[in-house]
Amino acid sequence: MAALLRRVNIPVKSIYQVYPKQKHEKVQDPAWIELCGKKGWIALSGDKRIEKNVENRTAVIKHKVKVFILTDTNSLPEEWAAAVIVGRDKMASVIGKNEGPFFSIIQKRSRSHVSHARFPQQYLAKGAGDPPAPTSTEVTHGQESAKEQTGNPAGLQANSPSGAGNKTGDTETAKEKGR
Q1: Is residue 155 part of a domain?
Q2: Residue 111: inside a domain, yes or no?
Q3: Is the peptide bond before 77 cis (omega within 30 degrees of 0)?
């Protein structure tokens, strides 16, 4: 994930850089938490024990560390990098408004960066009736389908009456594309 974030100019030091050659396996959480505090680094981790474990939480408080915790560690680094990239303005705002210590959760799915469908007034005014119903195509990822997450499938143009956004007019779901 660190390399992906660096590609978009987010400065990141992974624990593997800070503690090379398997040293990261031996360093205790309070030690690297203290280092983050001393260097003014923001901690980004999927380890929920940082907040729940008394020693770790005490280190965060003592060294005024700003900690962002990912909601799971089972996802691909590309998914988490995408979540951090999309959320970086919000993260910067949280960091800027709070001296630390603090904990903040980062979720990889968000409904706030993509709006709901809006239908042109001309379309509705011409007697087209109600807006088109969401399609029934589902694209699954993990245990949730895109339809369950957003109320609309990720196959954005699937079953579109006009094929809008699809030059050939053919519909193709994300599942058919191999996603």
Answers
A1: no
A2: no
A3: no
For the chain, the distance separating the N- and C-terminal CA atoms, rounded to the nearest angstrom, is 20
What H or E segment, with its residue span, contains residue 98?
Answer: none
pLDDT tens-digit readout, 28-55: 999 999 999 999 999 999 999 999 999 9
Which two three-digit tokens encode residue 156?
């954005």
CA dist 104 → 9, 35, 45, 95 (Å)? 22, 19, 11, 10
Q: Is 154 among the domain residues?
A: no
Supply the range of the domain harboring residue 69.
Answer: 2-106
Q: Is residue 51 part of a domain?
A: yes
DSSP state of 69: E
pLDDT (tens digit per residue) in 154-168: 333 333 333 333 333
**Counted domains in the chain:** 1
Dump the DSSP string for 120-177.
-HHHIIIII-SPPPPP----EETTEEHHHHHSS-S-TTTT-SS-TT-TT-----TTTT
Q: Please tell me the pTM assigned to this model.
A: 0.64
Both structure tokens of 145: 């389908």
Between strands 140-141 and 144-145, the pairing is: antiparallel
* Strand pairing class (42-45; 66-70): parallel
